[in-house]
Design goal:
It is a single chain. By secondary structure, the protein is mainly beta. The protein has no helices and 10 strands. It has strands at residues 2-6, 11-16, 19-24, 27-32, 38-42, 45-50, 67-68, 75-80, 83-88, 91-96. The strands form 2 sheets. The chain has a 5-stranded mixed beta sheet, with no helix packed on it. It has a 5-stranded antiparallel beta sheet with strand order 4-3-6-8-7, with no helix packed on it. A hairpin with a 6-residue loop joins strand 7 and strand 8 (75-80). The two termini are 22 Å apart.
Amino acid sequence: MYLEIVSPEATLFSSEVDSVVVPGVNGEFEMLSNHAPVVSILSEGTIRIKTHTQSHLVFDELHGDVIPHADDKKVLTVKISSGTIEMKDNKLIILAD
């Protein structure tokens, strides 16, 4: 599935991923490829992104909010204070604050 995380300042992340765990209002939930369409509000917490590999990802000043997990190099984390998600046609867009 394709994931795009956008903040008011910039696009924080844009790539193919294996799965995404987000902090929903009623608790965390995970989305995998071919997930049913969904629109939801996110609460404060951490987005966990599982990638197949990080060899194609670039970590620079623009992407400073995306941090590789200390224990699993295939997992990236992004802290948010709130947000909204839309999953449709195997593309997940997260508008994050």
